[in-house]
Amino acid sequence: MGEPIRVLQVVTHMNRGGLETMLMNYYRNIDRNKVQFDFLTHRPENEKKDYDDEIRGLGGKIYHMPVLNPFSPSYMKSLDRFFKEHKEYKIVHSHLDCLSAYPLKAAKKNGVPVRIAHAHTTLVDTNLKKYIKLFSKKKISKYATNLFACGQRAGKWMFEGQPFQIMNNAIDTKKYLFCLETREKIRKEFHISEDEYVIGHVGNFTLPKNHTFIINLFYEICKKNKKVKLILVGGGNDGSQYKEKAEKLKIADKIIFTGVRNDVPDLMQAFDVFLFPSIYEGLPVTLVEAQAAGLHCIVSDQVTREVAITKLIEFISLDENINTWIDCILKYKNSTRENMLQKIQRGKYDIVENARWLEEFYTNGK
Questions:
Q1: Of 78, 161, 249, 250, which one is least surrounded by beta carbons within 10 A?
Q2: Which of 89, 93, 47 lies closest to 66 in space, CA to CA?
Q3: Residue 223 and residue 290: Cα distance in Å, rounded?
């Protein structure tokens, strides 16, 4: 067998986020004798990220670009220089959403034949970068040869009438199957008694995840039920403000901030219900994981309904009365876990089948 095809994955960084976790799921399960992933990141070399060691252990290379600025001549020159020096890449797969146009432009200029733009979101933040991103996404189809999306809603928003393919946010389903022993171990680690009802959330502290709503909602829940705990799994620069908010509301002793963890499948065993009130999303991999763990998921109606692979998802409007959210969360206090393995597999979100599909695409272009 010859050398594997090396595919360049273009990302911001490789910390533990939904997109990065999805990519690593594929990377671990693809046949690396046939296809190898390398990563072009947009962070300095001295900033070590969560998945860097594992990537190198799997045989991948990590390259570093300056922070992405499409209006910076030095940034565009850096991209151009990279592709001039790395003619080995025949496939470039960009995960920068609206900003994918720029690395794909440089790749096209330098003769890369397969250039994939991948949509992971359905909206952009309302800040100064919004109009740059909306302007940039209109350029994607000019430079991409293939358009991928995590779901229909993300693809329709990003590519505006252009045909695209779905690449599922697939998971290793077996890791999430309910295990009582693991549940007891994790709850013991966090000093949670078996009669305490645990509301869980997995997501970095970024605006779309809506942590302000989560804290305010939990404050109201505590008024109705004293035997509750909230576990927030994730990192990000804004985490401290939510800890301060919890202190002011006098509920800090009931909230566990785990930070970034590499054992999310185990943590989900300790949850009793999963809360996900995002302001906007693509198709969040963490909701696929939560369903695989057999958790009832209370989700905002801003999340695409494609994520409802099982009957465990319940959508509620963010404009709905807070008591509707509270009642919905608390009604699952005595529910039991179901094995969702076959339903996740039938929904085509198990990583084994999806990794074979991606491998086939990279090797044969279909």
A1: 161
A2: 47
A3: 26
